[in-house]
Design goal:
The complex is a heterotrimer of chains A (331), B (391) and C (306).
Chain A lengths: L2 H10 L7 H22 L4 H25 L10 H16 L5 H23 L4 H20 L10 E2 L15 H24 L1 H11 L1 H6 L4 H27 L1 E2 L6 H14 L5 H20 L4 H14 L3 H6 L7
Antiparallel strand pairs in A: 1-2
Helix pairs in contact in A: 2-3, 2-7, 3-7, 3-10, 3-11, 3-12, 4-5, 4-6, 4-10, 5-10, 7-8, 7-10, 8-10, 11-12
Chain B lengths: L1 H22 L3 E7 L6 H17 L3 E2 L2 E9 L4 H14 L4 E3 L4 H13 L3 E4 L5 H4 L7 E3 L5 H13 L4 E7 L2 H11 L5 E8 L7 H10 L3 E5 L2 H13 L8 E4 L7 H4 L7 E4 L8 H14 L5 H19 L7 H10 L10 E2 L5 E12 L5 E13 L12
Parallel strand pairs in B: 1-3, 1-4, 4-5, 5-6, 7-8, 7-9, 9-10, 10-11
Antiparallel strand pairs in B: 2-3, 11-13, 12-13, 13-14
Chain C lengths: L2 H32 L6 H19 L2 H22 L9 H23 L15 E3 L5 E3 H23 L1 H18 L4 H23 L9 H16 L4 H29 L2 H11 L3 H12 L10
Antiparallel strand pairs in C: 1-2
Helix pairs in contact in C: 1-5, 1-6, 1-7, 1-8, 1-9, 2-3, 2-4, 2-7, 2-8, 3-7, 5-6, 8-9, 9-10
The chains are: A mainly alpha (331), B alpha/beta (391), C mainly alpha (306).
Chain lengths: 331, 391, 306
């Protein structure tokens, strides 16, 4: 990992250099906490807590995937829920045909989301800014309506899985704790993969294309190719989250791919702080846990949650990572 | 020193709390309903119906103090799964009452029955749970989803309508609804029209209906879609010309918005606020006094659900640990339902009467559905035969 | 499909398109002039409808309700501007998106808190509650004709305002180069506030106009917001003319396409397959249209030159 170059790039762009705590401490702390959480959960309501935290981690995977293109590539995808849906439907459709092997399902989920990302990315990346936002929304909506019309797979109502995916024909991830650690492993792999992508030459070209595409072109790179590859990777990782989401709920439905879901993913990334990857994790956790907590306090929780988001934007630049000092990227 | 005292105090509090819990442990009932978004009104009706029952019974079910925990499923199946796990494992509820929507019902079914907890639906009654997928832990105090549609099909058949226009949103429940209608209707279906879900403007449908001039239309348009359809149907001058048969389109949740436009529209139901039993009169009056709105069948089912749990716990002496005993007691349904006759079929769905109802304006200016005629007597759903549960 | 039916569809498409235009006009101006993404624009439409419902219940008259709802919608818009939006103009788009999403959550829940979750009713004014016969024997509701007329009227007014007044000139100038306008000594803050309030009022007007035919319920602005964004993106951001044409296009494609798509597909496919595919394709049509427009013209049909 070429930390020096990272440092120099940040300094050159006039951004505050993330403190050492922000760079290593926060993610290390987060993952330690997540690894130990099941021990705490044993005190009571284990299944509920693990299920809630699994959900947080699943959305964190999707948020990290989105941060990869949003925070580092400047590409605001408003259709990322489609990939959640592709991943989930890969599980649902295959298992309704009796194919319950996790590896087959995962391969299909990743393959299908990758292909969809490449196909739609190739078209979407012709546009910039808000036009990119809207064209990704368009593809997301098309897939949503397609899912609602799949009458043989439950249409709008969705379909229930007979069981969680099987690993080597055995129910290895059936239990709450086993599933929790499976999700944890996926999150860790996603994070490490994200980190190494960001630190690689590829990642630097991606950031360069975000900041100054003309210059990148001038020095011999094709921003389009890098952005498309990043979009593909991001789509596949979100497909992984969809695969996990289907297994967690043991249920698949078009509700996973509404535009509101795509929006929530964006909000998670912004709330956490752009362009740090673990900020996305924090954002997903804050978003979902606050929602869960506030909903328990009052029926009108959205009247608290809404203003809270406004306050975060107005007074905490750079989201939660901004508050923590390891400031994320700002435009 | 202070420190020690505080710790001692804390320990004492914990002991007292634990002791108290042992002496009189509360019965916990989790209400999982849709309380946000455009369909929130249905969840609110069910919640208020249940709370009213709790008030009428002095906060006790089967002699036990009750803690009611209300959660919002946000009409998102995956959210509902997490919430229901919270009810089951954090709150350790003895009963789950809910949900409103079938897709949520499908998603939460597995975690609840796997936790061997009883699960009573005050509205959603999907065919999957009534037939092969029936489960000894699942009961519905409402109906099987098809039945209300079947009422209108029977009415259309009996009244001799030869040509009927069918209209439903393009999703599973919409397709099921038209299938339910056609179970008893044998005449000609001039058009089976599916509009995209959440269609707000029905002008083009209305134009088609007007030009085809059928003997009647049958539609299933829940929530805001129903409000819009009825207002526009009336606006196009069709309400007087072509009978409007509907299910879940004109009820107490939509009438406050439809008002005069709905007068003349027909629906199918297992109950109406004007059903003439002393219990029902008392319920409707109390509900209106408490919540300032006319109760719909959602509240009635939830109220009945509380009565049902109460009757079962009375039979078991307030105990819930022997599941078989609780189930047997639930099955007996020994309570006086607001709707009159009520018993359970083998699949945990009610066997009950169904009525043709129509929208009407009351003397006090409020709107409600009123019974026109009884269409089915002690009617069971079509799927019960497939239920293989051996209980 | 008979010609009369097609005519009805076209009228419906027009009416829907004009409502979309009323919402999109404010959105595209705010976006174009201030470079501000306002997701809360849809809830201003909802607020307009709720205000109309509340005032109609209070006064018993649709016209009074409309008259009172407009200035109140303006006030609500200005309040939001002062309390929240003003502090976001110099932020990046994503901050604006998150904060305005917070406003959506708050207001969607707020109307439910104030008026309950049940849909509300606005009675149709007697004057406009009849129907007009169309050639071919079908009736068309007068109220919808009134919406079309009002929509066209507002569009005309906007045209005059934007292209033939000093304020309009400033707004157009602001859309292509805001710092320059500011440098020329125009109080850009007041201009922004005016544009913002005006946009909010237009959205509120649209909400009040549809209240008698649609159900007034929490969240009614969410889906229409997305459609309004589709409109301004197809039209080209900041362009009123683009928004107008795109709104009509979307209105017509969505309405007419829904009936035409299955009919057309029946020419190529077996009827049951055709109706199945038609139902799947119909709601996608506008998104396919948008993707296609952006594919060939990545900045919309009428890009404002910067």
């Amino acid at each position: 990992m070429s930390g020096g170059a990272d440092f120099a790039a940040a300094a050159a762009a006039g951004r505050p250099v993330p403190s050492r705590l922000g760079r290593l401490g926060v993610p290390a702390l987060l993952f330690t906490l997540l690894a130990l959480a099941p021990l705490l959960a044993m005190a009571g309501a284990e299944g509920y807590l693990l299920s809630l935290l699994s959900r947080v981690m699943i959305f964190a995977i999707a948020a990290i995937a989105l941060d990869l293109i949003l925070g580092y590539g400047g590409l605001v995808s408003f259709g990322h829920a489609a990939f959640l849906g592709i991943g989930a439907y890969a599980v649902g459709i295959l298992s309704s045909h009796g194919i319950e092997d996790a590896f087959v399902q995962l391969a299909v989920a990743l393959g299908a989301s990758g292909l969809f990302a490449l196909a739609t990315g190739a078209i979407s990346l012709r546009t910039k800014g808000v036009y990119f936002i809207m064209i990704t929304l368009a593809f997301g909506q098309m897939l949503f309506f397609l899912a609602t019309s799949l009458a043989s797979y439950g249409g709008d109502d969705g379909l229930t899985l007979a069981s969680k995916s099987l690993i080597f024909g055995r129910k290895l991830i059936e239990g709450d704790r086993a599933f929790y650690y499976a999700v944890f492993a996926c999150l860790l792999v996603t994070y490490i993969l994200g980190r190494s992508i960001v630190a690689s030459r590829f990642g630097r070209v991606l950031r360069g294309s975000r900041d100054n595409p003309v210059r990148m072109e001038a020095i011999g790179f094709h921003p389009f190719r890098y952005q498309l590859a990043a979009y593909g990777i991001s789509g596949m990782l979100t497909g992984l989250a969809g695969f996990l989401l289907a297994n967690q709920a043991e249920f698949v439905s078009p509700a996973y791919m509404t535009w509101q879901r795509s929006g929530e993913l964006i909000f998670m990334v912004i709330l956490g702080g752009l362009g740090s990857l673990h900020g996305a994790l924090l954002g997903a956790a804050a978003f979902l846990l606050l929602e869960e907590y506030l909903a328990g306090v009052t029926e009108h929780w959205k009247m608290i949650f809404g203003p809270l988001l406004i306050v975060v934007v107005l007074f905490a630049r750079g989201g939660i990572m901004g508050i923590l000092g390891g400031r994320g990227r700002r435009d | 020193m202070n420190h020690l005292i505080r710790i001692a105090g804390l320990a004492a509090t914990v002991c007292i709390a634990a002791g108290g819990a042992q002496a009189q442990e509360k019965l916990k009932v989790g209400l999982l309903l849709t309380l946000s978004g455009p369909s929130a009104v249905l969840g609110q009706q069910a919640r208020d119906g249940f709370q009213l029952a709790m008030k009428d019974m002095g906060g006790k079910l089967g002699g036990r103090e009750v803690e009611v925990i209300v959660v919002d499923d946000e009409l998102k199946p995956d959210v509902a799964v997490t919430k229901v796990k919270g009810l089951l494992e954090r709150d350790k509820v003895d009963f789950v009452v809910g949900p409103i929507f079938s897709n949520v019902a499908a998603a939460i079914h597995k975690p609840i029955v796997e936790a061997q907890t009883f699960y009573i639906s005050p509205n959603a009654g999907p065919s999957t749970f009534a037939g092969k997928g029936c489960n000894p832990y699942f009961f519905a105090t409402s109906y099987q989803n098809d039945q209300n549609h079947e009422v209108l099909g029977k009415v259309a058949q009996d009244r001799g309508y030869k040509r009927v226009y069918l209209l439903a949103p393009n999703y599973q429940a919409g397709k099921d609804s038209l299938a339910g209608f056609k179970r008893h209707y044998k005449g000609e279906v001039v058009e089976e029209s599916y509009t995209p879900l959440n269609t707000l403007d029905f002008q083009s449908e209305l134009a088609k209906i007007a030009s085809m001039n059928p003997d009647a239309i049958f539609t299933f348009m829940p929530g805001g879609m129903g409000v819009n359809l009825v207002k526009q149907y009336k606006g196009a001058g069709l309400m007087e010309k072509i009978p409007f048969l509907s299910a879940f389109t004109v009820d107490e949740s939509t009438l406050p918005a439809q008002q005069d436009a709905a007068i003349g529209a027909f629906g199918g139901s297992n109950w109406a606020p004007n059903l003439d039993t002393p219990e029902n009169k008392k319920f409707v009056a109390a509900y209106e006094a408490a919540y300032n709105s006319v109760p719909g069948s959602y509240s009635m089912h939830a109220y009945d659900t509380a009565l049902l749990i109460d009757s079962a716990l009375k039979a078991t002496g307030g105990k819930t640990d022997n599941k078989d005993a609780v189930r047997a007691a639930l099955k007996k349904a020994e309570f006086k339902s607001l709707r009159g006759d009520f018993k359970f079929g083998a699949n945990g769905f009610p066997v009950q009467d169904f009525y043709l109802v129509k929208a009407a304006k009351r003397a006090d200016g409020k709107f409600q559905t009123e019974i026109v005629q009884k269409v089915f007597d002690d009617y069971a759903d079509a799927y019960g035969k497939e239920c293989a549960a051996t209980n | 499909m008979t010609p009369t039916l097609l005519l009805v569809q076209v009228l419906n498409g027009l009416q829907f398109g004009l409502i979309l235009f009323l919402i999109a006009a404010g959105l595209t101006l705010v976006f174009g002039v201030m470079d501000f993404i306002n997701l809360a624009h849809g809830v201003q439409y909802m607020v307009g409808a709720y205000l109309a419902a509340a005032f109609a219940a209070w006064t018993g008259s649709f016209w009074l309700a409309l008259g009172l709802a407009l200035p109140t919608a303006l006030v609500v818009g200005l309040l939001l501007e002062i309390l929240v939006f003003r502090h976001l103009y110099d932020r990046d788009h994503l901050d604006q998106v998150l904060a305005t999403f917070g406003v959506i959550l708050f207001l969607n829940q707020g109307v439910k808190f104030l008026w309950g979750a049940a849909p509300l009713n606005v009675p149709m004014p007697d004057l406009l509650s009849g129907s007009i016969p169309l050639p071919g024997g079908l009736l068309y509701p007068t109220y919808r004709i009134a919406i079309i007329a009002a929509g066209l009227g507002v569009a005309g007014l906007l045209y005059v305002l934007v292209h033939h007044t000093r304020i309009g000139m400033l707004v157009r100038a602001g859309a292509s180069n805001a710092p320059m306008v500011s440098a020329l000594g125009v109080d850009i803050r007041r201009l922004f506030m005016g544009v913002f309030g005006f946009g909010a009022m237009l959205a509120g007007f649209a909400g009040a106009m549809v209240a008698p035919i649609l159900s007034v319920e929490p969240g009614m602005g969410d889906n229409i917001l997305i459609l309004a964004f589709v409109v301004i993106v197809i039209g080209g951001i900041g362009s009123i003319r683009g928004a107008f044409l795109a709104a009509l296009l979307i209105g017509l494609v969505d309405t007419v396409g829904r009936t035409l798509a299955p009919t057309l597909l029946r020419l190529f496919l077996d009827p049951s397959v055709a109706s199945q595919t038609g139902r799947a394709v119909a709601p996608m049509l506008i998104y396919i249209l948008m993707a296609a427009v952006l594919f060939f013209r990545p900045s919309g049909l009428f890009p404002v030159r910067r």
